[in-house]
């Protein structure tokens, strides 16, 4: 299964990527919107992990573009963010996010379980 991790924090990007790689996922990473859409030209993930606070376009804008692109609109998107206010969660879900995890409150094992749960339902 293929996963795209869009996260500008290098440490977290590597940590999540390593954990998912160890769990058997084919991982690609991106640090911003431009990088993410370049990756998506050649790599259709089964799921996307997306930070909201990124340089350039923010995660809400990226999510909107993903959901408007017929070739990838069906790909589930899990938001991983420090933003945990109800308004942020509601906005992300309204834009088409599949799930929303606040960085301070999840473990790497929980991310792996979430991915399996979401992909099992597809």
UniProtKB/TrEMBL annotation:
Domain Response regulatory positions: 2-118
Post-translational modification 4-aspartylphosphate, affected residues: 51
Domain of life the protein comes from: Bacteria
GO terms, biological process: phosphorelay signal transduction system
Family matches, as Gene3D superfamilies: 3.40.50.2300
Keywords for this protein: Phosphoprotein
Protein name, per record: Response regulator
